[in-house]
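seq as requested:
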Amino acid sequence: MSNAEQIEYWNSKVGETWVLMQERMDLALTPVTTALLAAAAPQPGELVLDIGCGAGETTLAIDAVVGEGGHAIGLDVSEPLLARARERAEALLSEAEFIAADAATWAEESGFDLILSRFGVMFFADPGAAFANLHGLAAPGGRLVFACWQPAARNLWATLPMTALAHLLPAMPPSDPHAPGPFAFADPARVATLLEAAGWQDLAFHSLPFEMMVGDGDDPIASAVQFNLRIGPAARAVRDAGIGDAAKPILAEALTAFLQDGQVRLPGAIWLVTARA
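C-alpha coordinates:
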Protein backbone atom coordinates (compact mmCIF):
# COMPACT_ATOMS: atom_id res chain seq x y z
CA MET A 1 0.00 0.00 0.00
CA SER A 2 1.04 3.59 -0.57
CA ASN A 3 0.98 5.98 2.36
CA ALA A 4 -2.30 7.39 1.02
CA GLU A 5 -3.78 3.90 0.91
CA GLN A 6 -2.58 3.23 4.46
CA ILE A 7 -4.29 6.40 5.66
CA GLU A 8 -7.55 5.41 3.95
CA TYR A 9 -7.29 1.86 5.32
CA TRP A 10 -6.75 2.89 8.95
CA ASN A 11 -9.58 5.41 8.81
CA SER A 12 -12.04 2.82 7.53
CA LYS A 13 -13.92 0.18 9.51
CA VAL A 14 -10.51 -1.34 10.33
CA GLY A 15 -9.62 1.58 12.59
CA GLU A 16 -12.90 1.23 14.44
CA THR A 17 -12.29 -2.51 14.91
CA TRP A 18 -8.86 -1.85 16.40
CA VAL A 19 -10.46 0.61 18.84
CA LEU A 20 -12.84 -2.12 19.98
CA MET A 21 -9.91 -4.53 20.31
CA GLN A 22 -7.57 -2.04 22.01
CA GLU A 23 -7.52 -3.65 25.44
CA ARG A 24 -7.14 -7.15 23.97
CA MET A 25 -4.30 -6.04 21.70
CA ASP A 26 -2.43 -4.20 24.43
CA LEU A 27 -2.67 -7.29 26.62
CA ALA A 28 -1.46 -9.54 23.81
CA LEU A 29 1.56 -7.30 23.24
CA THR A 30 2.50 -6.81 26.89
CA PRO A 31 5.89 -8.60 26.54
CA VAL A 32 6.76 -6.42 23.55
CA THR A 33 5.72 -3.19 25.26
CA THR A 34 7.71 -4.04 28.37
CA ALA A 35 10.85 -4.79 26.36
CA LEU A 36 10.41 -1.72 24.13
CA LEU A 37 10.09 0.66 27.07
CA ALA A 38 13.06 -0.93 28.83
CA ALA A 39 15.21 -0.47 25.74
CA ALA A 40 13.97 3.10 25.21
CA ALA A 41 14.70 4.02 28.84
CA PRO A 42 12.82 7.35 28.81
CA GLN A 43 14.04 9.90 31.34
CA PRO A 44 12.30 12.72 33.20
CA GLY A 45 12.27 15.90 31.16
CA GLU A 46 12.76 14.27 27.74
CA LEU A 47 10.92 15.15 24.55
CA VAL A 48 9.62 11.94 22.99
CA LEU A 49 7.93 11.08 19.68
CA ASP A 50 5.89 7.86 19.33
CA ILE A 51 5.43 6.73 15.71
CA GLY A 52 2.21 4.88 14.88
CA CYS A 53 0.97 5.37 18.43
CA GLY A 54 -2.45 3.84 17.78
CA ALA A 55 -4.67 4.00 20.84
CA GLY A 56 -1.85 5.46 22.92
CA GLU A 57 -0.54 2.61 25.09
CA THR A 58 3.16 3.40 24.65
CA THR A 59 2.75 7.17 24.45
CA LEU A 60 0.88 7.26 27.75
CA ALA A 61 3.47 5.05 29.43
CA ILE A 62 6.24 7.34 28.20
CA ASP A 63 4.42 10.49 29.31
CA ALA A 64 4.11 9.12 32.83
CA VAL A 65 7.90 8.83 32.98
CA VAL A 66 9.01 12.09 31.34
CA GLY A 67 6.79 14.05 33.70
CA GLU A 68 5.87 17.71 33.71
CA GLY A 69 9.31 18.73 32.50
CA GLY A 70 9.05 16.51 29.45
CA HIS A 71 6.53 15.90 26.71
CA ALA A 72 5.31 12.86 24.77
CA ILE A 73 3.76 13.21 21.32
CA GLY A 74 2.02 10.34 19.56
CA LEU A 75 1.61 10.38 15.77
CA ASP A 76 -0.80 8.18 13.85
CA VAL A 77 -2.84 8.30 10.65
CA SER A 78 -5.96 6.71 12.19
CA GLU A 79 -8.48 9.20 13.54
CA PRO A 80 -10.53 6.49 15.34
CA LEU A 81 -7.46 5.24 17.21
CA LEU A 82 -6.32 8.77 18.04
CA ALA A 83 -9.77 9.57 19.44
CA ARG A 84 -9.43 6.57 21.74
CA ALA A 85 -5.90 7.66 22.74
CA ARG A 86 -7.18 11.12 23.69
CA GLU A 87 -9.98 9.58 25.76
CA ARG A 88 -7.44 7.49 27.65
CA ALA A 89 -5.18 10.51 28.18
CA GLU A 90 -8.07 12.54 29.60
CA ALA A 91 -9.03 9.72 31.97
CA LEU A 92 -5.42 9.50 33.21
CA LEU A 93 -4.98 13.29 33.41
CA SER A 94 -2.05 12.82 31.03
CA GLU A 95 -0.47 15.70 29.14
CA ALA A 96 0.44 13.42 26.23
CA GLU A 97 -0.39 14.97 22.85
CA PHE A 98 -1.87 12.98 19.96
CA ILE A 99 -1.57 14.27 16.40
CA ALA A 100 -3.05 12.95 13.15
CA ALA A 101 -0.07 12.96 10.80
CA ASP A 102 2.08 10.86 8.51
CA ALA A 103 5.43 10.39 10.26
CA ALA A 104 7.15 10.02 6.90
CA THR A 105 6.76 13.74 6.26
CA TRP A 106 5.71 15.36 9.58
CA ALA A 107 8.12 18.06 10.71
CA GLU A 108 6.18 20.37 13.01
CA GLU A 109 8.63 19.92 15.87
CA SER A 110 12.18 18.64 16.29
CA GLY A 111 14.85 18.08 18.92
CA PHE A 112 13.42 14.77 20.15
CA ASP A 113 15.55 12.96 22.70
CA LEU A 114 13.76 9.71 21.91
CA ILE A 115 11.78 8.45 18.91
CA LEU A 116 10.13 5.09 19.41
CA SER A 117 7.56 2.85 17.79
CA ARG A 118 5.70 -0.35 18.55
CA PHE A 119 5.06 -1.78 15.07
CA GLY A 120 4.46 1.60 13.45
CA VAL A 121 7.41 1.91 11.07
CA MET A 122 6.99 -1.06 8.71
CA PHE A 123 4.25 0.56 6.65
CA PHE A 124 6.15 3.45 5.05
CA ALA A 125 5.87 3.52 1.26
CA ASP A 126 9.41 4.93 1.14
CA PRO A 127 11.12 3.80 4.36
CA GLY A 128 14.46 5.37 3.42
CA ALA A 129 12.91 8.82 3.09
CA ALA A 130 10.83 8.27 6.23
CA PHE A 131 13.85 7.31 8.36
CA ALA A 132 15.72 10.34 6.98
CA ASN A 133 12.82 12.54 8.05
CA LEU A 134 12.84 11.01 11.53
CA HIS A 135 16.60 11.54 11.74
CA GLY A 136 16.00 15.21 11.07
CA LEU A 137 13.53 15.34 13.96
CA ALA A 138 15.97 13.87 16.47
CA ALA A 139 18.20 15.89 18.77
CA PRO A 140 21.95 15.32 18.35
CA GLY A 141 22.57 11.89 19.83
CA GLY A 142 18.83 11.27 20.05
CA ARG A 143 17.73 7.66 20.39
CA LEU A 144 15.63 5.60 17.98
CA VAL A 145 14.00 2.45 19.37
CA PHE A 146 11.38 0.37 17.59
CA ALA A 147 9.84 -3.09 17.51
CA CYS A 148 9.28 -4.85 14.18
CA TRP A 149 8.30 -8.40 13.35
CA GLN A 150 10.82 -11.08 12.45
CA PRO A 151 9.97 -13.35 9.47
CA ALA A 152 6.46 -14.77 9.30
CA ALA A 153 7.83 -18.27 9.81
CA ARG A 154 8.74 -17.27 13.39
CA ASN A 155 5.31 -15.74 14.02
CA LEU A 156 2.78 -18.50 14.34
CA TRP A 157 0.15 -16.01 15.54
CA ALA A 158 0.05 -14.81 11.92
CA THR A 159 0.72 -18.00 9.95
CA LEU A 160 -1.33 -20.60 11.85
CA PRO A 161 -4.76 -19.12 11.02
CA MET A 162 -3.81 -18.60 7.37
CA THR A 163 -2.48 -22.15 7.07
CA ALA A 164 -5.55 -23.65 8.70
CA LEU A 165 -7.87 -21.75 6.36
CA ALA A 166 -5.79 -22.08 3.19
CA HIS A 167 -8.19 -24.57 1.56
CA LEU A 168 -11.04 -22.06 1.89
CA LEU A 169 -9.12 -19.04 0.63
CA PRO A 170 -8.25 -18.12 -2.95
CA ALA A 171 -4.66 -18.72 -3.99
CA MET A 172 -2.52 -15.71 -3.20
CA PRO A 173 0.05 -14.53 -5.76
CA PRO A 174 3.63 -14.19 -4.50
CA SER A 175 4.10 -10.88 -2.74
CA ASP A 176 7.07 -8.55 -2.44
CA PRO A 177 8.60 -9.34 0.98
CA HIS A 178 9.73 -5.71 1.24
CA ALA A 179 6.33 -4.19 0.45
CA PRO A 180 4.85 -2.10 3.28
CA GLY A 181 3.27 -4.45 5.79
CA PRO A 182 3.81 -6.29 9.06
CA PHE A 183 6.86 -8.25 7.89
CA ALA A 184 8.52 -5.63 5.69
CA PHE A 185 11.40 -5.25 8.19
CA ALA A 186 11.94 -8.95 8.86
CA ASP A 187 15.43 -8.82 7.28
CA PRO A 188 17.75 -6.98 9.70
CA ALA A 189 20.41 -6.47 7.02
CA ARG A 190 17.93 -4.52 4.89
CA VAL A 191 16.77 -2.46 7.85
CA ALA A 192 20.36 -1.68 8.82
CA THR A 193 21.06 -0.45 5.29
CA LEU A 194 18.00 1.80 5.35
CA LEU A 195 18.86 3.25 8.75
CA GLU A 196 22.52 3.89 7.98
CA ALA A 197 21.64 5.57 4.69
CA ALA A 198 19.29 7.86 6.61
CA GLY A 199 22.08 8.90 9.00
CA TRP A 200 21.40 6.66 12.01
CA GLN A 201 24.38 5.17 13.84
CA ASP A 202 25.26 2.62 16.54
CA LEU A 203 22.64 0.17 15.28
CA ALA A 204 21.75 -2.92 17.30
CA PHE A 205 19.17 -5.66 16.68
CA HIS A 206 17.94 -7.65 19.68
CA SER A 207 15.89 -10.80 19.09
CA LEU A 208 12.86 -11.20 21.34
CA PRO A 209 10.78 -14.39 21.09
CA PHE A 210 7.53 -14.24 23.05
CA GLU A 211 4.07 -15.74 23.27
CA MET A 212 1.09 -13.71 22.11
CA MET A 213 -1.96 -14.31 24.27
CA VAL A 214 -4.89 -14.36 21.84
CA GLY A 215 -7.58 -16.03 23.95
CA ASP A 216 -8.63 -16.21 27.61
CA GLY A 217 -11.72 -15.88 29.80
CA ASP A 218 -14.58 -18.33 30.24
CA ASP A 219 -14.12 -19.73 26.71
CA PRO A 220 -10.52 -19.08 25.64
CA ILE A 221 -10.92 -20.93 22.33
CA ALA A 222 -13.91 -18.81 21.30
CA SER A 223 -12.00 -15.74 22.48
CA ALA A 224 -9.01 -16.72 20.32
CA VAL A 225 -11.22 -17.35 17.29
CA GLN A 226 -12.81 -13.92 17.69
CA PHE A 227 -9.37 -12.34 18.04
CA ASN A 228 -8.16 -13.90 14.78
CA LEU A 229 -11.30 -12.91 12.90
CA ARG A 230 -10.81 -9.27 13.90
CA ILE A 231 -7.04 -8.76 14.06
CA GLY A 232 -4.17 -10.02 11.91
CA PRO A 233 -3.68 -11.37 8.38
CA ALA A 234 -6.48 -13.94 8.61
CA ALA A 235 -9.07 -11.32 9.57
CA ARG A 236 -8.80 -9.47 6.28
CA ALA A 237 -8.52 -12.64 4.20
CA VAL A 238 -11.62 -14.13 5.80
CA ARG A 239 -13.55 -10.91 5.43
CA ASP A 240 -12.62 -10.51 1.75
CA ALA A 241 -13.52 -14.14 1.01
CA GLY A 242 -16.79 -14.02 2.97
CA ILE A 243 -16.07 -17.25 4.85
CA GLY A 244 -16.53 -16.10 8.45
CA ASP A 245 -18.98 -18.83 9.51
CA ALA A 246 -17.00 -21.62 7.86
CA ALA A 247 -13.74 -20.35 9.34
CA LYS A 248 -14.82 -20.48 12.99
CA PRO A 249 -14.78 -24.26 13.62
CA ILE A 250 -11.57 -24.70 11.63
CA LEU A 251 -9.80 -22.00 13.62
CA ALA A 252 -11.14 -23.42 16.87
CA GLU A 253 -9.64 -26.82 16.08
CA ALA A 254 -6.28 -25.37 15.08
CA LEU A 255 -6.06 -23.14 18.16
CA THR A 256 -6.98 -25.83 20.67
CA ALA A 257 -3.45 -27.24 20.52
CA PHE A 258 -2.19 -23.98 22.05
CA LEU A 259 -4.56 -23.88 25.01
CA GLN A 260 -2.74 -24.08 28.32
CA ASP A 261 -3.76 -22.94 31.79
CA GLY A 262 -6.88 -21.25 30.49
CA GLN A 263 -5.17 -19.18 27.80
CA VAL A 264 -4.39 -19.57 24.10
CA ARG A 265 -0.87 -18.38 23.37
CA LEU A 266 0.83 -18.43 19.97
CA PRO A 267 4.59 -18.02 19.36
CA GLY A 268 5.90 -14.74 17.99
CA ALA A 269 9.26 -13.06 17.52
CA ILE A 270 10.33 -9.45 17.03
CA TRP A 271 13.44 -7.42 16.39
CA LEU A 272 14.01 -4.72 18.97
CA VAL A 273 16.04 -2.16 17.01
CA THR A 274 18.07 0.65 18.60
CA ALA A 275 20.10 3.45 17.00
CA ARG A 276 21.36 6.99 17.61
CA ALA A 277 21.21 10.13 15.53
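The beta strands are 47-51, 71-76, 97-100, 112-118, 138-149, 201-215, 259-260, 263-276.
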